[in-house]
């Protein structure tokens, strides 16, 4: 412009105005002649249009005419419309199975990890995962480099939303705690149900595989372009629209959606375990108030109470199924079993009405044997986690809280816990001995009320583990020197649901926090 008009601002401004009108006309022509906005061809055409237009603007910038920002501002509503309708199309294809038998071409590299779950689950589950990853891949492949650079944050946010909605659909496929037929009829219909342990684990494995293996492969091109731009750090490669998203934040939000599915599974699994049991195998505060009852075999052969023996058997069975369904995915196996154990202990810790309301009732009298049984059950739960080789720090902390509260309840009634409780080492050794006895099918428990098969979990014990046992235990019990087994002074007055939502946010995700 300077060559033609010199420093005459009037002509320069008119030229800019003319150029802006031409861009507005261009954008109008693009909209009028583009394919239908919900089609993948529309997304491809829009991407090519943005790429070519910005390349032309880049050439003009060397002549002093900067129009890239104007072009992007005018094109943004159209790009938003195309993206929105394409993601609606993706949601429909992923979630609507009625009359949709379209075969989706997916490379073996992406299809093979999901196909491993076909044997253990409804074929529709694997089909839904295939549809999800196909649609994301299909959308990403249409994007040109400059579209990724300037609209990448918007696209990443939409993919997060689609994944979160997919997790909501998978949650609907899981049974609710103690479902009955009348409640099932009221639930929103889903094309597949995960009812057995293997089906539910396959569902979790599908979600985990998509989030941890397939999405990173499909999304690598987007992150590569954004990282290159960030590293270059100059105006020519900087996005002109403020919609950037940090990789760590994106991964955190993706993990949050995955955690939502996992926590729902753990909650319904544990509640079904607790409330489907009757009599002496149901976790209940009354088992600690029964004095010389059948559960308190302290004179002959002390064992954990029957509910916790049953829990051990249930986790063993699930670990065996997980070893088959989630073969090669040890990370998710360990974290799922850890979270299930945590959820059981959390139920005890935060159940104010059914557990603590009974145990702390003025009429009830927590006797020394009942206190000993409760403490042994908590140590036994910690030993389950350590024996199986999965993260146990959170179980430690919650067990500590339960023991401390029970001791305060006992002491608050004028009883001397020092004379009532054995040394901490006794609880640890008794809990370990109980695990060995249950694995060998030893006497002392009512086998008819406990899961029949005692299958060894991932037994990673070796010489180093034996040396580490006391160190790990010391980490837990050294919080207070006031009395044996007074592991901590943490208390809770929250409901199970609220305690879970807050505490589980701070606990492990699908990673091993102790690795």
UniProtKB/TrEMBL annotation:
It comes from the Eukaryota. Gene3D superfamilies: Exo84p, C-terminal helical domain. The keyword Transport applies. GO terms for biological process: exocytosis; Golgi to plasma membrane transport; intracellular protein localization. One of its GO terms (cellular component) is exocyst. Residues 458-494 are annotated as: Disordered. SUPFAM superfamilies: Cullin repeat-like. Keywords: Exocytosis, Transport. Residues 459-482 have a biased composition (Acidic residues). InterPro entries: Cullin_repeat-like_dom_sf, Exo84, Exo84_C_2. This is Exocyst component Exo84 C-terminal domain-containing protein. It comes from Lactuca virosa.
């Amino acid at each position: 412009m300077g060559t033609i008009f010199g420093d005459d601002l009037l002509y320069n401004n008119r030229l800019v105005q003319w150029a802006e009108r031409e861009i507005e006309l261009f954008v109008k022509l693009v909209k009028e002649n583009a394919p239908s906005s919900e089609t993948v061809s529309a997304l491809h055409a829009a991407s090519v249009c943005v790429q070519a237009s910005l390349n032309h603007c880049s050439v003009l910038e060397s002549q002093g005419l900067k129009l890239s920002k104007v072009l992007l501002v005018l094109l943004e509503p159209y790009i938003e419309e195309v993206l929105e309708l394409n993601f609606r199309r993706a949601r429909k294809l992923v979630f609507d199975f009625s009359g949709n038998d379209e075969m989706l071409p997916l490379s073996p590299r992406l299809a093979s990890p999901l196909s491993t779950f076909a044997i253990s689950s409804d074929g529709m589950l694997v089909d839904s995962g295939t549809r999800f990853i196909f649609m994301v891949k299909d959308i990403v492949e249409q994007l040109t480099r400059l579209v990724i650079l300037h609209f990448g944050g918007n696209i990443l946010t939409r993919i997060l939303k689609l994944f979160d909605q997919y997790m909501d659909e998978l949650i609907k496929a899981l049974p609710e705690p103690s479902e009955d037929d009348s409640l099932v009829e009221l639930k929103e219909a889903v094309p597949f149900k995960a009812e057995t342990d293997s089906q539910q684990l396959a569902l979790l494995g599908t979600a985990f595989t998509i989030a941890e293996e397939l999405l990173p492969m499909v999304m690598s091109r987007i992150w590569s372009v954004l990282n290159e731009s960030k590293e270059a750090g100059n105006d020519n490669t900087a996005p002109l629209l403020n919609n950037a998203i940090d990789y760590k934040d994106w991964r955190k939000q993706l993990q949050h959606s995955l955690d939502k599915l996992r926590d729902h599974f753990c909650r319904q699994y544990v509640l079904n375990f607790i409330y489907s049991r009757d009599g002496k195998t149901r976790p209940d505060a009354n088992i600690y108030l029964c004095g010389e009852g059948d559960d308190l075999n302290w004179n002959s052969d002390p064992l954990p109470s029957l509910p916790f023996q049953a829990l051990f058997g249930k986790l063993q069975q699930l670990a065996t199924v997980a070893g088959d369904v989630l073969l090669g995915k040890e990370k998710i196996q360990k974290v799922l079993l850890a979270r299930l154990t945590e959820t059981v202990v959390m139920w005890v810790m935060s159940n104010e009405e059914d557990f603590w309301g009974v145990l702390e009732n003025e009429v009830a009298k927590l006797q020394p044997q009942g206190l000993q049984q409760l403490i042994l059950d908590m140590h036994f739960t910690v030993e389950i986690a350590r024996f199986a080789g999965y993260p146990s720090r959170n179980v430690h902390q919650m067990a500590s809280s339960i023991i401390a509260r029970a001791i305060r309840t006992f002491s608050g009634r004028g009883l001397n816990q020092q004379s009532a409780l054995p040394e901490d080492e006794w609880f640890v050794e008794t809990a370990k001995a109980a695990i060995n006895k249950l694995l060998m099918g030893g006497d002392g428990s009512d086998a008819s009320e406990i899961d029949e098969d005692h299958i060894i979990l991932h037994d990673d014990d070796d010489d180093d583990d034996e040396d580490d046992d006391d160190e790990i235990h010391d980490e837990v019990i050294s919080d207070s020197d006031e009395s044996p087994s007074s592991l901590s002074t943490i208390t809770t007055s929250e409901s199970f649901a609220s305690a879970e939502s807050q505490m589980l946010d701070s606990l492990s995700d699908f990673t091993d926090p102790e690795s």
